[in-house]
Amino acid sequence: MTIDELWYRFALSIILQSIIYLLAYLKIDAQIYLRKRLYTIGLKRN
Fold first, then answer.
1. pTM, to two decimals
2. Spatial separation of the C-alpha atoms in residues 36 and 40, rounded to whole Å
């Protein structure tokens, strides 16, 4: 295995990890946003 291959795998794993973290963060963000939206819609109905 050459150094280039090692760097490539290293970079790829970091990129994949950051994408996973980002997706998880966005998912949490979306859930909070949806809860707030549902809450405000519920308040408007009453």
1. 0.56
2. 6
